[in-house]
Amino acid sequence: MSRRVFVSAGAAGIGRVIAERFLSEGAQVAICDADPAAVANFQADYPQAVSAVADVTAENEMAGFLDALETQWGGVDVVCANAGTGGPAGAIETLDYEDWQNCIAANVHGAFLTCRWAARVMKAQRSGLITLTSSTAGLMGYPMRSPYAAAKWAIVGLTKTLAMELGPFGIRVNAICPGAVEGPRMDRVVAKEAVARDMSEDEVRALYVTGVSMKTWVNADDVANSILFLASDAGRKISGQILAIDGHTETLAPS
């Protein structure tokens, strides 16, 4: 039987690349995403996949989609809790509380709803892999991005805890910590930081490279490669790990 793989926020960006890579290996793939246009594009390109519009922070939407997926598949082998948002940029005293809440909700509450379902289903079958998307911002401080850093550190704690809870049932849980990933999402992040730091976007991009040992950004395929490795037989004993895919970030506050 082919592997059954669910990717949240899977219609665009990193999530789409993860979904595409599993599809190319013959897996059954399901995605959800809050962006109707992105889901429509994904459906058009991959009609063999299960796809739906669902907001990871909306309990009813996620429960409806995931319960239907469980009925259709009878279980799940790989769950990628990938959804998140960059949140606002700025010194903490300038931030709006609603923006803070939205950032925490998309990154942390969405992961909770996804992992709660995955844990129940995988416990019943006594097998499975869960990956959560954290960030290098979940490994160190990140000036001007406190909501995002707080959320991604929470994902690290959730990963470590779930690996302990679920390990006895044959379930592995790991976090992926991408660095700066090329693409539209980071373009938006750079634009926000440029305003917050009173710098040009090119200057902000240069700062990201300055703080990385390999002096380079990463791409979505780099992230997907790591998840496919974890899902392979070669990764079958890897659990509770926080894996940075970033060219070694030395600091998120380069001088």
TrEMBL record:
Its EC number is 1.1.1.268. Coiled coil: none annotated. GO terms for biological process: steroid metabolic process. Keywords: Lipid metabolism, NAD, Oxidoreductase, Steroid metabolism. It holds the Pfam family adh_short_C2. One of its GO terms (molecular function) is 2-(R)-hydroxypropyl-CoM dehydrogenase activity. InterPro entries: NAD(P)-bd_dom_sf, Sc_DH/Rdtase_CS, SDR_fam. It comes from the Bacteria. PANTHER family: 3-OXOACYL-(ACYL-CARRIER-PROTEIN) REDUCTASE (AFU_ORTHOLOGUE AFUA_6G11210), NAD(P)-BINDING ROSSMANN-FOLD SUPERFAMILY PROTEIN. NCBIfam families: PRK12826.1-2. Belongs to the short-chain dehydrogenases/reductases (SDR) family. This is 2-(R)-hydroxypropyl-CoM dehydrogenase.
